[in-house]
Design brief:
Helices cover 71% and strands 0% of the residues. By secondary structure, it is mainly α. It has two domains: 142 residues, no CATH class; 142 residues, no CATH class. The longest helix has 28 residues.
Length: 334
């Protein structure tokens, strides 16, 4: 009994020693892991696009193994097998980063529940995406399943953006680590509209993709919808998104909002314009592979920029700031 007791005490001591080495708050390591989470989520969208655009979607024709006899790709499968298996392998990188992020916030999880739950959500999203990816292969690249795969990736990018915004130290006395500064009611309403329009734009873009070429394999099915009609429908919320972004940008500068919100709105405006330009050019040039790849990257950056702007406009993604003196007080002090 004494041996068992000493063994358990030794294990408990070891666990406490390990926990003591974990960060007790947001450090450079924690913030670095948050940024790595966002970058890796965008990267897997880009590599997934490479799989589809090189017709490598069935480079590994089964799942979870690459072939019925092999877990990994074989030389006989050629470049398509390498590309598809490479994309699958990246999942392990995301898993490592997600586990490291969760471990990094574990010690102060009660004080920073926002970081803790965002870390859990990102970690849970990885096996969910792997399962959807498996269904995608087993259904021979069904465009609706492929589209759902992409939408979940966009959701994870939004969550990772929130994680980056939250991963900053919490000054004493701020309670939940969120800044008190919020945009005006009108700006917040426009930002909510931007969020809705971004979501609609991305979802319609997925449907357009499912109706066009670049299916991921020469024999992969399409959704049967008219690509030209779906493109015209897809453009409608894009116009509204451009208008809403311009309106929010003007309001933010006219009403002298927080500097970080102004920067976020400029970033969003640039991404919206560039994404719109790429979309138009790819449509009128016959959907060349490189432009389609840029458009997929642009969709990821659009979700990231929109989430960032909305988060900061609602005052949730801003660092706590000291109350600034009024203009009259400032003049008197001078």
């Amino acid at each position: 009994m004494s041996d068992h007791s000493s063994g358990r005490n030794g294990e408990a001591t070891g666990l406490r020693s390990l926990a003591a080495r974990l960060p007790g708050g947001v450090t450079r390591t924690v913030r670095g892991l948050a940024i790595a989470s966002l970058v890796s989520q965008v990267l897997i969208v880009v590599t997934g696009g490479a799989v589809r655009l090189t017709a490598s979607g069935l480079g590994c024709p089964t799942w979870p193994q690459c072939t019925a006899e092999s877990l990994i790709n074989t030389p006989e499968m050629g470049i398509h097998g390498i590309i598809e298996f490479g994309n699958r392998t990246l999942t392990f990188v995301l898993t490592f980063i997600a586990f490291a992020m969760l471990l990094a916030v574990w010690r102060f999880r009660r004080q920073r529940r926002d970081l803790f739950f965002l870390s859990i959500a990102l970690l849970a999203g990885i096996p969910a995406q792997a399962l959807i990816g498996g269904i995608t292969v087993l259904t021979q690249l069904n465009p609706w399943v492929v589209g759902w795969h992409f939408i979940v990736s966009m959701t994870l990018i939004a969550l990772a953006t929130l994680l980056v915004n939250r991963a900053r130290p919490m000054p004493a006395g701020t309670g939940d680590g969120h800044g008190p500064t919020r945009a005006s009611t009108t700006v917040r309403q426009v930002l909510v509209a931007i969020g809705v329009l971004t979501a609609i734009t991305v979802m319609l873009g997925v449907i357009v993709t499912g109706s066009g070429p670049h299916a991921g394999d020469a024999d992969a099915p399409r959704n049967g919808l008219d690509p030209e009609l779906m493109t015209r429908i897809h453009v409608a919320p894009v116009y509204l998104l451009v208008a809403a972004t311009a309106a929010a940008l003007i309001l933010v500068y006219r009403r002298h909002h927080h500097r970080q919100l102004r920067q976020a709105m400029v970033m969003l405006a640039v991404v919206v314009l560039l994404q719109g330009m790429v979309g138009y050019i790819q449509h009128f040039t016959g959907l060349p592979v490189m432009l389609v790849a840029l458009h997929m990257l642009g969709a990821s950056l659009l979700v990231c920029a929109a989430t960032n702007a909305i988060d900061k406009g609602l005052g949730r993604g801003l660092p706590p700031v000291e109350t600034q003196p009024s203009s009259s007080t400032a003049r008197l002090s001078r």
